[in-house]
Amino acid sequence: MTPIPKTRETFRLIHGGQANSSMMQAATVSEEFATLSMDGRTERDEWFALACHRLAEIDNLAAGWDGYGSDRISKPTMNFAAMLLANVWEEARSLPFPAISPMSNGAIMIEWRSPISEVTVEVNNPNDVDVLVETLATGHTNEFHVTSNFAKLSEALEQSTKPVVAVA
Amino acid sequence: MPIAGPKPSDALPDDEVVIRRVPTLHPRADGKREVSKGSFAASSKSRDPEEGMSVDLASVLVAMGIDPADPTQFAPEFEVLMTLKVGDLHAHGMWVVPRTQPHPAHCNVLGVTSGKRKIVFGLAQFLRCPADVVKAGE
Questions:
Q1: DSSP strand E in B38-104: where?
Q2: Which residues of A touch B41 (CB under 8 A)?
Q3: Which of A25, B33, B39, B70 has the fewest CB atoms nearer than 10 Å to its CB?
Q4: Given CB atoms, is A92 within the 8 Å cutoff of chain B?
Q5: CA A89 – CA A112 distance, rounded (Å)
Q6: Residue among A121, A126, A124 nearest A154 (CA)
Q7: Three-state SS string across A124-141, please?
Q8: Strands B26-27, B106-109: parallel, antiparallel or unpaired by DSSP?
Q9: Residues A130, B94, B122, B45: is their CA dihedral positive or negative?
Q10: What's the pLDDT at B137?
Q11: Which chain A residues touch B61 with a CB distance below 8 Å?
């Protein structure tokens, strides 16, 4: 796993602004991580710290960051992406660390790639997430929308670690 | 995100080439940095009601005396630039149209939906790229 540079401030999960139910859930997740950290850094801490570092980089992007006048990525979208990552960690841990990218439309893209499939998540806004799962062997794609329940996404990530069974 | 629909009357000729600026790179465990398909997204509806993906038309830049491959002449703040052939985009139903604001070379690619983003990413070729930068999946 890529070492985390120590010169950058870790992304803070809660930035204030308008509180809503998703933000409250994020706060709960944050406290859970704080508890886990009491006994030293766990695998989950390391993974999430790396994710938060990448989110911090995105958070630091100024308006116009894409060269075409795009706005900054909003705090609620950043927080929701962090919460989503925290929620699916258990299933995502066996996959290579995801690419996390800002998008010109204000969304955050999270991409998991395995030899079996690609899972692409676009966090458009809080409770507005598009997921595209592509099975690489067949090219078959499955698209679905997620709000605050990540069970279907977790299932897709779990399936990404399992070998495809050939059908006679 | 609106689909592109029929070919607009102002669509660019197929033999043109457009340039997409790539703003952020994802660090990898092997020390390389990668471009992901997230860099190929349309603008938000609040900024562009047409929801096009912004690009720069190479021929206009050249006509203005600008070499887009030279970072001292074009987009110096971007390490990575990628090119797309207009004919390739048209072949996949994504129309490229001139939209000369905020500058004369600016164009929009219409119909870059989440389902077509991977196609666009696959079509893109490096114009300017440091040695440690690769496309995701390579």
A1: 53-57, 80-85, 96-98
A2: 103-105, 107, 109
A3: B70
A4: no
A5: 12
A6: A121
A7: EECCEEEEEEEECCCCCE
A8: unpaired
A9: negative
A10: 79
A11: none
Predicted model pTM = 0.81
- Asked if A32 is an interface residue toward chain B (Cβ–Cβ < 8 A), one would say no
Q: Which of B22, B45, B54, B56 best tests the A interface by mutation, with the highest count of A CBs <10 A?
A: B54
Q: Is B104 helix (H, G, I), strand (E, B) or coil?
A: coil
Structure tokens at B3: 């689909």
ipTM of the complex: 0.88
Q: Do B54 and A68 lie within an 8 Å CB cutoff?
A: yes
Query: What's the full length of chain A, in residues?
Result: 168
d(CA A134, CA A130): 13
Q: How far is CA B75 from the centre of its chain?
A: 13
Question: Which positions ≥6 away from B71 have C-beta within 8 Å?
Answer: B78, B128
Amino acid, res. A89? W
CA distance B127 to chain A (A): 16
A47/B contact by beta carbon, under 8 A: no
Judge whether B136 and A111 are in contact, CB under 8 Å: yes
CB neighbours of residue B63 within 10 Å: 11
Cis peptide bond N-terminal to B102, omega within 30: yes
3-class state of residue B37 by DSSP: helix
Sheet bearing B26-27, strands edge to edge = B26-27, B33-35, B133-135
Full DSSP string of A40-56:
S--HHHHHHHHHHHHHH
pLDDT in tens, A64-123: 999 998 989 999 999 999 999 999 999 998 899 999 999 999 999 999 999 899 999 999
**Distance separating alpha carbons of residues B52 and B1, to the nearest angstrom:** 9
How far is it, in rounded angstroms, from Cα B67 to Cα B6? 33
